Design the sequence.
């Protein structure tokens, strides 16, 4: 199993309320919701990264 690392971010109170409500509406914890959303963004970013150039 991979080692897990903790990430701490500070957000405005209203942002935290919206995040918590959105996660709850989807039946998820804030942690699980953030991991899903960030994971999707990382996949999109990786798809746009240039690959090795062929000569």
Sequence:
């Amino acid at each position: 199993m991979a080692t897990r690392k903790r990430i701490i971010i500070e957000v405005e109170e209203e942002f935290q309320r919206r995040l918590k409500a959105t996660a709850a509406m989807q039946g998820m914890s804030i942690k699980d919701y953030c991991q899903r959303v960030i994971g999707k963004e990382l996949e999109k970013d990786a798809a746009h990264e240039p690959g090795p150039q062929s000569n």
Notes: Residues 30-48 form the longest helix (19 residues).
